[in-house]
Amino acid sequence: MRYSIFILTFYLLNPLSSVDANNNYPIVLIHGFIGWGPEEMGGYNYWGGNHSYVEYLDSLGYKVYNVSVGPISSNWDRAVEAYYQIKGGQVDYGKRHSAQYGIIQKPAGKNWPGLYPEWDADHPIHIIGHSMGGQTARILQYLLETEIYMDSARTIPESSDLLGQRYQNWIRSITTMSAPHNGTTLSDIVTKSVPFLQDFIGLAAVIGNRFYNFDLEQWGFKRNDEESWSRYFARIRSHPAWGTRNICSWDMSLEGAKQLNTLAVANENIFYFSFATANTHLDSLNGEHVPNKDMSLILRSNARAMGKQIDYWADSTSSDSTWFENDGIVNTISMIGPTTGLNGSDPIIVYQGNKVFVPGSWYYMGKLTMDHRALMGHGKISDEVHNSILLLFKEHAEKLYALPSF
Fold first, then answer.
1. Bridge-partner residues for 363, per DSSP?
2. Residues 127/30, Cβ–Cβ less than 8 Å
3. Active site amino acids
4. Where are the alpha helices (DSSP H) in 241-343?
5. d(CA 331, CA 260)
6. What domains appear along the chain, each with residue ranges and CATH number?
């Protein structure tokens, strides 16, 4: 069974005629959980692995920017960082938010010149987010459109450029790839069994941070010059951040995602697209989902845990077997679109070769048979698979540029 057959199902059966671009808005890429930026990992790309999706799209005439946000931070913190990386300026997480979670409101090391300082209603952007990056894009939309107050009485707006004002029409489209819109049961599994995030940080600490940065200056997670790695690791593991809701594990949980979906609803002026991935199959003997043979080895234990009923899911929507299919990190059903907000589901439309799209609705672009890492070019990727993924990005970029301008 070859990836490319599934990747191209929705594209080759519904070929797009060439169209003139109706807009030339830049495309901004937001990485997911445990992701990294273009200056990290010794040049190994989050978006493309040994290749670069950014360079490929640039070669086709698209302007693409790649932000680097906190890999395990909350979506609020990541969205704020994305804003200032794109627009430029000193990060400001907000006075009330910072006081609530005990973080540094304006970390000195997070001040950027701006990848696209022109960004405004006259110069909007398209956003593509992978994994948690899809959630981050939606929180960024929410923060742009909402006036945030620094007091509980809602009388004093935040003073920052982002939080203290309302901005409309700064985002033309949001595309999510393998995003945990409704959460992932992996979050529940790891937080209720093995604290793997803390262990991951410890491992990175031993390796060194020259090639990877956790971007957690707001939490005081910077290693002191005279601090040993073991002491640094111990300090991180005992840090109160893990017990708050201002961390990735909460945002990717089912309850955390429900809270996000209640806040960040679809805007009638924005176009939305979602891609899903899956690399498990039903075991007819036990009714569970098990990994496909070509799933990355490091994801198989996750996939097995997510592919079956867990005792503590008793009162959870994830107890439904439709949640068993997954890509090793996220349940496939969660990737289709936001459905669990207290005000109901966002509108979701199954893509069927549409050439005209309606804003305010999610277009579900189909399911790709691959694991969570493969779509980003990680793992053992054949030339055929690589080329078909590039075709997917090319075709989707054409769709984005064919959307009507504001």
1. 273, 349
2. yes
3. 131, 327, 372
4. 248-251, 254-263, 300-306
5. 17
6. 3-402 (3.40.50.1820)
Q: Which residue's structure tokens are 């592919």?
A: 307
Instruction: Enumerate long-range contacts of 1-5, CB under 8 Å, 24 or more apart.
Output: 1/292, 1/294, 1/369, 2/384, 2/385, 3/294, 3/368, 3/369, 3/370, 3/374, 3/384, 3/385, 3/388, 4/384, 4/385, 4/387, 4/388
Question: Per the confidence metrics, is the pTM higher than 0.85?
Answer: yes
The helix/strand/coil state of 378 is coil
To which residue do tokens 């036990």 refer? 286
> What letters, b where the CB count within 10 A reaches 16 and e where it falls short, cover 155-193?
eeebebebbbeebeebbbbbbbbbbbbbbbbbbbbbbee
How many residues can be counted in the chain? 406
Measured distance between the N- and C-terminal CA atoms of the chain, rounded to whole angstroms: 43
Q: In terms of C-beta density within 10 A (0-12 exposed, 13-18 middle, 19 or more buried), how is residue 114 classed?
A: middle
Over residues 172-228, the pLDDT tens digits come to 999 999 999 999 998 766 554 434 445 455 545 544 545 677 788 998 887 777 877
- CA distances in angstroms from 263 to 8, 142, 154, 359, 376, listed in the order given: 34, 7, 16, 18, 28
Reduce the secondary structure of 108-173 to three states and give it as a string.
CCCEECCCCCCCECCECEEEEEECHHHHHHHHHHHHHHCCCECCCCCCCECCCCCCCCCCCCCEEE
Question: 199 with 397: CB under 8 angstroms?
Answer: no
Select from 1, 10, 4 the least CA-distant residue to 385.
Answer: 4
**Torsion angle of C-alpha atoms 17, 19, 25, 27, degrees rounded to 10:** 20
pLDDT tens digits, one per residue of 308-361: 976 544 445 545 899 999 999 999 999 999 999 999 999 999 999 988 999 999
Cβ-proximal residues to 97 (8 Å cutoff; 6+ apart), any chain: 76, 103, 148, 246
